[in-house]
Amino acid sequence: MKTRLSRHVQGWLLLMPAAILLIAFTHYPTVATVIDSMFSKATAIRPSRFVGAFNYERMLDDPIFWKVLANNAWFALGTIPTSIALAIVMALLVNRSIPGRAMVRMAYFTPTILPMIAVANIWLFFYTPDIGLIDQIAASLGFSGHNWLGDPATVLPAIMVMTIWKEAGFFMIFYLAAMQNIPPELKEASQLEGAGRWYYFRRVMFPLLMPTTLFVLINAVLNSFKLVDHLFVLTKGGPDNASNLLLYYIFETAFSYFETHFAAALTVVLLVLLGIMALLQFFILDKRVHYR
Fold it and tell me: Residue 265: which residues within 8 A CB-CB, separation 6 or more?
């Protein structure tokens, strides 16, 4: 009994550091956010009071919330598939024996290690009207300049291009590692059977990459909903909320307008959306990942 008890105590002691961090930085903030979302904003003459679902009703009547949610949906649809497809293509390229392969790998991965603020400032130089690199190239070809970040029709695609440029190299590393773990005998056997490169990729390599794809997809979804730094430097959500995304709207609501309880309600919605998407990804891709 003493030996069994000591094993239980030892196990709980080993789990305690991770459990404390998980409770302190994940579970407690989540519960506190849910509770805060049910209270009103405190003022100098009126303390905060319990209002139930009022903040959520206010959210449903908020046109900016729906615009931001639509922006985030388009942003995710535009960046996630493109980043993953580009990462696979880059991984296929640098997985082959090509001249300067190490330099190509480093070039692909370099945007990933750059700080977000630095990336935003680099692309701000590209997008600046008239004097930016894109407009200078366009002028040399005889085209007129364009305010990429000031036009509601182009600001969100411009942010998407920058995000894809930064994230594709990060995802490439995971695909490259997965490709290098695929036994070379599978490729040799497919070649002996007369299979071409596309057939081998579609029928052999890509199914073996499904666990990596699930991991990358979850990270890509999370990244598409946590963009703040780039928007703060480039557009601040403008013009007319055309580039405003959900997390930046939460940040702006909490720290610019000091509507912390309304921001808490927005945060709860964000957490619910991420949880639903994660569950859908697991249920949809689980069969392909585990081959059942």
Answer: 37, 55, 56, 58, 59
User: Encoding tokens for residue 172?
Assistant: 């490439």
pLDDT surpassing 60 at residue 291: no
| 144 inside domain | yes
Q: Considering just the CA atoms, what is the radius of gyration of the chain in Å?
A: 24
Q: What is the DSSP letter of 47?
A: -
Residue 160 has pLDDT above 90, yes or no: yes
> Which one, of 223, 272, 241, 251, lies nearest residue 56 by Cα?
272
Question: Which pLDDT does position 189 carry in this prediction?
Answer: 87
Q: Give the number of domains in the chain.
A: 1
Amino acid at position 180, single letter: Q
175 contacts 209 by C-beta, under 8 angstroms = yes
Residue 229 lies in a domain: yes
283 contacts: CB under 8 Å, gap ≥ 6: none
Please work out, in degrees rounded to the nearest 5, the angle formed at the alpha carbon of residue 159 by the alpha carbons of 126 and 33: 140
By three-state DSSP, how is residue 42 classified?
coil
Q: Of 71-85, 111-125, 202-216, where does the model show the most confidence?
A: 71-85
Average pLDDT score, the chain: 88
19 domain-assigned: no
Give the domain extent around 238: 65-290
Specify the CATH number for the domain of residue 122: 1.10.3720.10
Does residue 239 have a cis peptide bond before it, meaning omega lies within 30 degrees of 0? Answer: yes
Nearest-angstrom CA–CA distance, 117 and 4 = 53
Q: Does residue 117 fall inside a structural domain?
A: yes
Task: Give pTM, 2 decimals.
Answer: 0.88
Q: How many whole angstroms separate alpha carbon 221 and alpha carbon 83?
A: 11
